[in-house]
Amino acid sequence: MKILFTGGGTGGHFYPIIAIAEKLNQIIDQEKIIQSRLYFMSTNEYDKEALLKNGLVFVGISTGKMRLYPSIQNFFDYFKIFFGAISAIFKIFSIYPDVIVGKGGYASFPALFAARALRIPVIIHESDSVPGKVNKWAGKFAKRVAISFAEASEYFPKEKIALTGVPIRQEIIQSSDKGVYEYLKLDPGRPTILILGGSQGAKIINETILETLPELLNKYQIIHQVGNKNIEEIESYSSVILEKHPHKDEYRPVDYLNPLAIKMSAGAANLVISRAGASAIFEIAAWGTPSIIIPISKSNGDHQRKNAFNYARSGACVVLEETNLEPHILIAEINRIMDNKMEIEKMKNGARSFAKFDASEKIAREIINLSLEHEK
Questions:
Q1: Domains of the chain as residue ranges with CATH
Q2: Residue 69: is its pLDDT beyond 60?
């Protein structure tokens, strides 16, 4: 059995693939499915360690990106897309997987094009409320379509759809409550806010948090994931504005949270402030933590805003749009939630009701079923 995964070069595409691969490997071991091999085709490895750990063989591909705005790069990228697709046909023919699993993003197009040309069965997973262009196109010929939000069903043939949620890696699907304050070196007597800006960080969130820091630290301790490219600037600026603050050591800016740090931070967090990426939303829901969700104002198909409001309907979060992201509004919203025990309990219950813990298993089982059908 050979399975090839493909997806764009962001954490929102990559880590759900890892979560599915984890579950596939578990089923393969338990059911002793022999001669199994997993592959990952994309423009880059993204997280080499995660690929190695889960036995995914990386197959590199080049392609172009179709931007939603006028650009001379679009002209040149037509050629990159064409040659990438032709190259993918040859590379995939040499592997000839039983199933190709598409996660979306421009980097998944060559593999999905090759799948159609070579008549290889396709399963796609769509994380967002509004699918991207590649998944919309692939949904027309895919055998199965897994969606995370019910609202995405209108974009795909009804008979192919399964509502699964977003697959989450086993090592972070549950927060940890053991030794978290010792690990994080935080005070268990003070409430904790966890701020997640996505894998690249979020400039507008970072800037707003810095403006509110002196006041927030009077009541809360803060873990702030700022992104690799922002860490030096944030550390430098925060050290200046907090130089004489009595709780300056309870602000923890970090560039990246590894799985253990995510699990521990989630265990300590009384409130999460996050972007509206689908993976982030489903992870927060799985932790059962109240949240303030700040969608990107201009995302493809306005999908982040739709993700956020779809989640808010469960009662699990408050949505704060970028146009309203002012320091005094953010502080007021944080205090309103944190000072209201009934509101906190309602949000926790909403998060738990929204969470889907079996997404990886549902998708992995369908991959295996489709693969065995193709082998016959």
A1: 2-168+357-375 (3.40.50.2000), 180-354 (3.40.50.2000)
A2: no
